[in-house]
Amino acid sequence: MADDKIRVFLCDDHAIVRQGIRALLTTEPDLEVVGEAADGAEALAALEAAAPDVILMDLAMPRMDGIEAIGRIKAAWPEARILVLTSFASDDKVFPAIKAGALGYLLKDSGPEALVQAIRQVHHGESSLHPAIARKLLEELSRPAAEAAMPDPLTARELEVLRLIARGLSNQQIAGQLTISDATVRTHVSNILGKLQLASRTQAALYALREGLATLDDEAD
Question: 140, 165, 199 — which closes off a domain?
Fold first, then answer.
């Protein structure tokens, strides 16, 4: 059963925070802490050997902060799944972290259950955003911008896939629900991002929320 565990790497400059999270995660049978670091530079040096499934990343750290670390990690390991856990909800932290490639963004005032759930969601490739962060990003997306041309409208199937992305379903779950292959789902996701000129599943989910295709109350089956 050990092989089935989600391997989590902790990156936070406060040892007491890392110890607390480690103690929490050891109570969950499907989670395992496989390494930790006090800043982004330490994390980069340790990640290859640790081979985590999910990286839990603080933002305010010495030497190399979380935003720079996220960018470097994603450059070296594009498939890395990173969950930000921070005290900061300011625009100058949220938007760069999401742009750099974080799949989830959780505030440290969240409860233990929310953290555990977010780790599982990010492990499955799902977006996990604190409600306050989701609303902040929605406000940003809702601001008038330069006319963004959408060369081709989404097909009916692509709209189905987009709605399921917004509900937090992984590619595998979407494939099962729509009775199509994982490869076909990946193609649809790629087409959706291209047509909407978006960079990630998180942005696609937020687009669906903004356009009324999903709500923050929707839950995955």
Answer: 140
* Same domain for 158 and 128: no
Residues 115 and 182 placed together within one structural domain of the fold: no
What CATH number did the domain enclosing 46 receive?
3.40.50.2300
Print the domain residue range for 20.
2-140
Q: Domain tally for the chain? A: 2
Q: What is the pLDDT of residues 140-151, one digit of tens each?
A: 655 544 444 444
Closest CA to 30 of 2, 57, 11, 54: 2
Sequence letter at residue 186:
R
Residue 221 located in a structural domain: no
What is the DSSP annotation of 59-119? Answer: SS-SSS-HHHHHHHHHHH-TT--EEEEES---HHHHHHHHHHT-SEEEETTS-HHHHHHHH
Distance (Å, whole) CA 184 – CA 177: 13
Integer Cα distance of 138 and 148 in angstroms: 17
Single out the residue of 28, 175, 12, 157 nearest to residue 84, CA to CA. Answer: 12
**Token pair listed for 144:** 């008038």
Q: What is the pLDDT of residues 2-30, one digit of tens each?
A: 468 999 999 999 999 999 999 999 999 99
Residue 102 to residue 71: CA distance in whole angstroms: 9
DSSP 58: -
Phi, psi for 12 (deg, rounded to 5): -155, 140
